[in-house]
Amino acid sequence: MVKICCIGAGYVGGPTMAVIALNCPSIEVVVVDISVTRISAWNSDQLPIYEPGLNEVVKQCKGRNLFFSTDLEKHVSEADIIFVSVNTPTKTRGLGAGKAADLTYWESAARMIADVSKSNKIVVEKSTVPVKTAEAIERILTHNSKGIKYQILSNPEFLAEGTAIQDLFKPDRVLIGGRETPDGLKAIQALKDVYAHWVPEDRIITTNLWSAELSKLAANAFLAQRISSVNAMSALCEATGADVSQVSHAVGKDSRIGPKFLNASVGFGGSCFQKDILNLVYICECNGLAEVANYWKQVIKVNDYQKNRFVNRVVSSMFNTVSGKKIGIMGFAFKKDTGDTRETPAIDVCKGLLGDKARLSIYDPQVTADQIQRDLTMNKFDWDHPIHLQPMSPTGVKQVSIAWDAYEASKDAHALCILTEWDEFKTLDYRRIFDNMQKPAFVFDGRNVVNVEMLRDIGFIVYSIGKPLDPWLKNMPAVA
Fold it and tell me: For 24-163, where are the alpha helices, taking DSSP H only?
């Protein structure tokens, strides 16, 4: 029986291994992690991450050929194929601070593999890593090999949170990069055979190591670039009276462009986009490509500008101050159908409003009160370290309360800010919400989910990203 071990039981490792186990009943799959809390959660009925369909997949194969364990050395030693899916946070100090990936956890995983291995291994990069990481890992393993042969493969993930299980079952492509040597090609084939249990062969792409690593960074950079492009247009739409939804619909009809990732919003979030672009910028700078680095930096600058612009709209619309005013925050996750808050635009928007002394009442159907308080007090990039190495949750932010539902969050509020596109926000009883709010009552829709005309008829003053401005908002500054 082929044995697979995955180091790292997070958003990538857990779901990916569950789907492999379900589709490959003849393969034993063990997910290992040093976090006892996280492994205990995987072994319980309350999984540590929320992802539609994940629970059902795990239930079907847990205890059969899918196992979760904290005994790293035993399972790494026994495995034929080792997936490494550990954190690769952005460095906060030293060379490349604020841009380069910190490979501390990767290096320690590689050294542990070298220490405990007694047989040849295929080591698969599953976390997002900078180009040439495979070469560094290869050196560590080779110099500590004790006669054991290692083949390093790059197998980047292209999952979208909220649809990760669907993406794993029906991927656009599976990308496997390896050395173009006889042993390297054999290793590529071994991993290809695993995916071939359910993925059509024409969707399994093989490349050299560097192309696979760079393809992941490039894919995320291109997607983020599209969001920043439409968000840049949304600012122009507001200035000219155009409607960004109509503009993006017309642009998306061009078959060369297509309609995906053209929804204007308060900004992109998630664990990958900003981190991967910063990584790309650093690699470009290291290779003397200053102009290319500056090009990609601008994608992040526009994203930051969009979040700042949103906060400035809120403050300037409400008589240029939100001090002491209650603002209901609708949604905290970076997108709907996930509880993930990593780099969510809501953090920067909330911090911006708190900086003007607003009182926030935050509601999100999937994010815990503790997580929200942690995110609002954590330093940038701290989220990307394993949970036990993150700062302990400090005292909560005094001006922040967590609401049980949207109606509680909006009661006696001066304004609502919609920051996640949860479907329930489209069907709320806005007449009831309006009646219970301070007047004038404002709605700032950062996701374009509400029916603007209906809300205006009720009596709300509505700001919707990239839409023609409410008469109230005209002639008010969009930027500080």
Answer: 36-42, 54-61, 72-78, 104-116, 133-143
Annotated ligand binding at 203? The verdict is no
Assign domain 220-473 to its CATH superfamily: NAD(P)-binding Rossmann-like Domain (3.40.50.720)
> Is 432 labelled a binding residue?
no
The model's confidence at residue 302, banded by pLDDT at 50, 70 and 90, is very high
Q: Please tell me whether 396 is known to bind a ligand.
A: no
Tally of CB atoms within 10 A around 180: 12
Query: Is 272 one of the catalytic residues?
Result: yes
Provide the whole-model pTM: 0.86
C-alpha to C-alpha distance for 315 and 234, rounded to whole angstroms: 19
Angle CA 256–259–260, to nearest 5: 110
Q: Domain 2-199, CATH 3.40.50.720 — does that match?
A: yes
Structure tokens, 135 = 């070469």
Residue 243 pLDDT more than 70? yes
Token pair belonging to 99: 């841009």
Query: Which of the residue ranges 36-50, 68-82, 121-135, 452-466 would you say has the lowest mean pLDDT?
Result: 121-135
